[in-house]
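Write out this protein's structure.
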Amino acid sequence: MSDAQTYSSDVAFTSAVKSIQSRKGSRVAYAHVEQRGGWRTEIDADLAAFLAQADSLYFATATADGQPYIQHRGGPTGFVRILDRNTLAFADYSGNRQYITQGNLSENPKANIFLMDYAHRRRVKIWGEARVVDDDPALLASLMPAGYKARPEQVVLFKISAWDTNCPQHIPQKFNAADVAAALASRDARIMELEAELAALNGESASAR
């Protein structure tokens, strides 16, 4: 039987977790968080902005007996869409056709979305329940990013129970290859401009002698 939930963070802080927090000295701090309202349960402007920039996520599910599985999902920036204040959705593209996630969700809807922003050293964890919709072509079409070269197969709907952020400690800073290429191209263009200006100034100086 699952623990009764009083606070939104109880989706993760079970009685077993709280017992360990008490033993290791962090329970008081998290109790203060609970008393202030706990983790957020609805999509706010901060989460919406984070999702609008996301091009990758990790999606965790488990079998009925608790065997976990984590799957990567990616797409163009903003591929995760907000349907309402509690619901996320994204088009699920055809892949290796193992259907482990879909099988897990068919017997255990509990799921977690983990998003990383390595460039800014931020992460977001979202708990909830998910289901696969494979019989709604209109919904699937509405979630498919324009011009993206992938074959959409179905939709994943995710109902949020709670979400939280983490501190940047130990997150390695990494940058998107396209962003790095754009920054280098901009730098190189500026160097060429400065070299051209310098050459012009040298030419003017030489002619004035």
